[in-house]
Every structure is written in structure tokens, then in C-alpha cells.
Amino acid sequence: MAKTKARKDYFGMGRIVSIILAIFPITAWLLGCITRFKEGKIVAGIIRIFFGFNILWIVDLIVMIVKGRICRLINF
Fold first, then answer.
1. Which terminus of the chain has a smaller tally of CB atoms within 10 A, N or C?
2. CA 41 vs CA 7, 23, 32, 53: distances in Å
């Protein structure tokens, strides 16, 4: 079996670094927006610009700790 490379959020940084960056609302908001635009998900990136500072930040922090990636509610 071939090993698949796990996708890491926040520009391929390690899980610990991503969790540390997700703790701070400003960096989580900024890097979350950039990550979604980088993936080509324009609508998701725009939604993160307007709603990334409130409840989405808390959800992102929890998902980052548990799964090691940002929350992806909208995939288009």
C-alpha cells in the first residue's frame, strides 16, 4: 500500500504550529481566508472574511485541535 500524504492546513505547517496559530483570532481568520482562496474555494473564502471572527473561529479551533485541519463547511 502506498502512503498518502496528509494535507496540513495553514500552508503545510505542522499540526502543533497550526494549533498555536489557530488560538489567536486574527491569525486564524487571516490564514483561514487565505487557505480557502488558495484551495480555489472563492465563496468559502468570502464567507470566512465576513464570519471568520465569530463562531467560525471557535469551531475552527476545536476542529484544528481534534483533526488538525480547518473546518470546511462549504466546499464551493
1. N
2. 16, 23, 11, 19
Q: How many Cβ atoms from other residues are within 10 Å of residue 28's Cβ?
A: 24
Distance separating the N- and C-terminal Cα atoms of the chain: 31
Residue 31 grid cell: 490564514
How do residues 47-71 score in pLDDT, each as one tens digit? 888 887 888 888 888 988 898 888 8
Q: Are the beta carbons of 75 and 36 closer than 8 angstroms? A: no
User: CA separation (Å) from 73 to 3, 4, 16, 19, 33?
Assistant: 27, 23, 23, 19, 13
Whether the CB-CB separation of 22 and 61 falls below 8 Å is answered with: yes
The string of DSSP letters for 39-57 reads: TT-HHHHHHHHHHTTTHHH
Q: pTM for the full model?
A: 0.75
